[in-house]
Amino acid sequence: NAGVTQTPKFRVLKTGQSMTLLCAQDMNHEYMYWYRQDPGMGLRLIHYSVGEGTTAKGEVPDGYNVSRLKKQNFLLGLESAAPSQTSVYFCASSYDSRYGYTFGSGTRLTVV
Amino acid sequence: AQSVTQLDSQVPVFEEAPVELRCNYSSSVSVYLFWYVQYPNQGLQLLLKYLSGSTLVKGINGFEAEFNKSQTSFHLRKPSVHISDTAEYFCAVSVVEYGNKLVFGAGTILRVKS
Fold first, then answer.
1. With 80 as the cut, is the pLDDT of residue B99 above it?
2. What count of other Cβ atoms lies within 10 Å of the Cβ of residue A10?
């Protein structure tokens, strides 16, 4: 089925380790986003991209980096994981915000 | 800056009772408004959206919402809830500028009891 695929679904990291979360969409959407979800705080935008080769900072970008080398993929990197980055991460894509976003199923990350 | 306030963090309700989930937003320009639903351990799914035109918007699963520009509100309603409606609901506003970003509220957990 067409949509947004996130890998991995679960991950446990030790403090200071690095990792990359992969988001892939097959809908030819220009816009892609990374959000983190924490209890009582809703979804907060980490980084986003308005097209291949572009990235921009969102509301909570510190400690994360992103890349969009191909239109269909949007990677989120954690260079040195911290316990404060324990969260559920969602990727989303859209053709135009008027049509809403399509979300992936999320990655549950625990940093110990 | 855009912001979205969901006035209730949790709403308990009995099955077959009506429910209203409240959402207020701040914006000085025209907005697009959305409601998303998140079932346990799943991603977010679009329930309904307001772009323009009729202020009463109907969505999936029997939900509807009413846009009130003067009160900057977009409350979600359902006349009769089911156990299966138990989920977290998010209101969101679209920032119509570079990036087409959605700003989300903190969420409201709807708990339907039998």
1. no
2. 9
